[in-house]
Amino acid sequence: MLVDAAGLYFRAFYAVPESITAPDGRPVNAVRGFLDMAASLIERRRPARWVACLDLDWRPAFRVELVPTYKAHRVAKDGGEEVPHALSPQVPLLLEVLTAFGLACAGAEGFEADDVIATLAERDEDPVEVVTGDRDLIALATERVTVLYTGRGLARLETLGPAEVLAKYGVPAAHYADFAVLRGDPSDGLPGVPGVGEKTAAALVGRFGAIEDIVAAADAGDDGFPAGAAAKVRKARDYLAVAPAAVRGRTDAAVAEVADHLPASPRDPDRLAALADELGVASSVARMHKAIAAAVG
């Protein structure tokens, strides 16, 4: 199980009230929510291995060079990512709890969690489940890789393999990134092709496949285009020449090998107990203990 850690702790932060605090008054709603959500997933899915995949660079330069608007709406005044002030200090605390448990964390300098996940999924030979609320990662779905999409919350978790992606979006999972490039995605600052909506994007990808083939067909005057779509594609050729490389997850991130089997016992039980007491998250730590024990068997 490869978890988009930032996606899950942001979801936890907004799902659990900020009134949930440590005994000393520090907010711990994201810590508690993340542990509870992760424990729920482990209870339900029983993975043998688990990795929290990290954004060591939330807005990589190579993507901004290709698409300058990439995540531009999320840039704070200091140039960093705009993150709620009550969330930022919780992230290192959460990572400390995970480390004390012995749960693996992985990242790569200059890359997002998407790239870490894509790299680890590509590297592995076992069945993989990807936990994310980021639609770009839907492109990873294969017969071996299942995407557990959290976009509508864990209570309405969507299990997406190739058949489910095709049924839901009308495009093969392998071409989801091409579909996203055409349609655009405001959450990532991806403009899309003006005048090309979701239905037209799905129709073009379903008929022609990759962006490169769609542009070639537009240039050749193929009559398979909906009315006016070919002109719109040709007009956006500069954007279409670079955007796919910005959207597609990289599989060459320098992710170090990690010990990712669920731990039969905590790596540092004394530190874990101290953190549970210090942060007031003993019930969430106990739930994670129980979930791991059940998965390990």
Features:
DNA polymerase, domain 1, 6-stranded mixed sheet, alpha/beta, 7% strand, 2 domains, 6 strands, Rossmann fold, 13 helices, 297 residues
List strands and helices in order, with pairings.
Layout: E1 2-4, H1 5-15, H2 29-45, E2 51-53, H3 61-66, H4 90-101, E3 104-106, H5 113-123, E4 128-132, E5 145-149, E6 158-160, H6 162-169, H7 176-183, H8 198-208, H9 211-220, H10 229-235, H11 237-247, H12 269-279, H13 282-296
Parallel strand pairs: 1-2, 1-4, 2-3, 4-5
Antiparallel strand pairs: 5-6
The quaternary state of the protein chains shown equals single chain
From the alpha carbons, calculate the radius of gyration and give it in angstroms.
Answer: 21 Å
Mean pLDDT: 96
CATH-scheme architecture of the largest domain: 3-Layer(aba) Sandwich
What distance separates the N and C termini?
Answer: 17 Å
Per CATH, the superfamily of the largest domain is 5'-nuclease
Structural class assignment: alpha/beta
Q: Output the CATH class name of the largest domain.
A: Alpha Beta
Large-scale geometry: elongated
Unreliable spans: none
Sheet with most strands: 6 strands, mixed
* Order of strands in the sheet with most strands: 3-2-1-4-5-6
The counted number of beta strands is: 6
